[in-house]
Amino acid sequence: MKIGIDKIGFFTPNLYLDMNQLALNREVEPEKFTIGIGQEKMAVSPITQDPVTLAANAALKILNDDDKSDIDLVMFGTESGIDHSKSAGVYVHHLLGLNSSARTVELKQACYGATAALQLAKGHIALNPESKVLVLASDIARYGLQTSGEATQGAGAVAMLISANPKIMTLEDKSTYLTADIMDFWRPTYSEEAFVDGKYSNEQYINFFQKVWQQYKKETELRLEDFTAICYHLPYTKMGLKALRTVIEDGSKETQERLLDNFEISKTYNKNVGNIYTGSLYLSLLSLLEHQANLESGDRIGLYSYGSGAVGEFFSGILQPCFKDYLQKEAHEKLLTSRKELSVSEYEEVFLKTLPIDGSTVELDVGQDPAEICVAGIKGHMRQYINKKQ
Ligand code: COA
Predict the structure, then answer these.
(1) Ligand 1 touching residue 28 (CB < 6 A)
(2) Number of Cα atoms under 13 Å in the Cβ half of residue 376
(3) How far apart are the first and last CA of the chain?
(4) 149 in ligand 1 pocket by Cβ < 6 Å?
(5) What radius of gyration, in Å, describes the C-alpha atoms of the chain?
(6) Burial of 36 (0-12, 13-18, 19+ CB in 10 A)
């Protein structure tokens, strides 16, 4: 049975910071951010967006009424969840008006959560071919003002509808994965910001890639030649390039050129949005699908997922006939071009304005935020969500 991505969309908040401005303000050479790290703009999340609303806004744009009644499993991958107990997916289930005969859970393993959801969705559909699964990947990446990870922040969500006979990409059966208990990046429950050992994290990301890729090659007998493109988890876009470079020489000159060209295209949205943690790999896939005009039905795309702590996986998908007809390139580009640029001091102000954690009541002005679904405040320790069109 063919199982895979039937629909895919993304959402990011309406505010951004230009990396050149951040570099000037932090007294580093702009090229460090734009070339050394490979980021141009960074999405900034206003107080009226959180991982729930980002995911709900992403899913809103891809689902029709039939999907809403057919979805029987919602899996929400995130590492910036808003509650230790209740799944962020349950809020989204309500905000989207999904069928109540559904299972809903949140999955966490740093930036790997959405990949776990995708693979579990595959198993669920194999047993229940009529089912549709909503996979949500949503995060706000916060390292803190004036930290070394500051330039690798961002915010956004990717929503994917997984089904049998998908219109965009089938997932191939074989995948290779690896778990090891390491401390390269983590966020204790008492901290709003992540802790990261940047150099170690980079090393482990590459180390995991090499291991799962070698294992994948051994088990499938596929080679670099067999891939039209490889998409990477991209906390910042240079990171994926570093991993690709470690294996690229195994391919012919033509393969090397193709993979490097397609890598450039696969970072189009990521370099303008920044890090969205678990959604980053899928934002990269979307960048490739919506910007590489030469892709064809039958092309094989490799995907490398990495979640610090750490779990890594290499898997692949095959593009389906007419997949381009089911993408939303124009809407995604409009989302990015209609954003408002912030100065560095405005970004700092937005960054520091967070929801209270002492149980006080807050009512937020959602009029400043063009998103359809927003956080409207907190009352009785409960976040209040609003869909402006309902
Ligand atoms: N022009 C071009 N490139 C420049 C430059 C300039 N003027 N100045 C610096 N650079 C390059 C450096 O050479 C380096 O490139 P390299 O890694 O290819 O050698 C890159 O810019 C970063 O510089 P570095 O000195 O390593 O930056 P840093 O010590 O401030 O670290 C991060 C910044 C972002 C790399 C680090 O904080 C990090 O890795 N953070 C996040 C990691 C992560 O997200 N992990 C978890 C998920 S996997």
Answers:
(1) no
(2) 8
(3) 38
(4) yes
(5) 20
(6) middle
